[in-house]
């Protein structure tokens, strides 16, 4: 992995909503509507962030009937894996992440 790819991933992480999406998807796969309900954001906003996460190979989707489920992708290289692990476990006790997890449990 080169410096440009590391910078691209770090820029992707440099957004509160994307960090919250990563945190939620580290727990289970969800639809856009599920993410909207947990994060209290509109569908357009969530879709924009999911697109950015897909373009940086952090999130993938699978289709089941009319539903599209999003989930965290297992990174193919060591550096991406380390960065993603830092977000999903290293800072998972941040207050906003804990509240999102509580909301997710209610869905």
Structure in words:
The protein is mainly α and 107 residues long. The chain has a single domain, classed as Arc Repressor Mutant, subunit A. It is built from six helices and two strands; from the N terminus they run H-H-H-H-E-E-H-H. A two-stranded antiparallel ribbon has the order 1-2. A hairpin with a 2-residue loop joins strand 1 (59-64) and strand 2. The model has no long low-confidence stretch (mean pLDDT 92).
Overall, the morphology is: globular
Poorly predicted residue ranges: none
Strand segment count: 2
Question: If helices are DSSP runs of H or I spanning 4 or more residues, what is the number of helices?
Answer: 6
Question: What is the averaged pLDDT score?
Answer: 92
Question: H/E element string?
Answer: HHHHEEHH
Please, how many domains?
1
Q: Quote the distance from N terminus to C terminus.
A: 38 Å
The CATH topology label is Arc Repressor Mutant, subunit A
Quickly describe the structure.
This protein is mainly alpha-helical. 63% of the residues lie in helices and 11% in strands. Strands 1-2 form a two-stranded antiparallel ribbon.
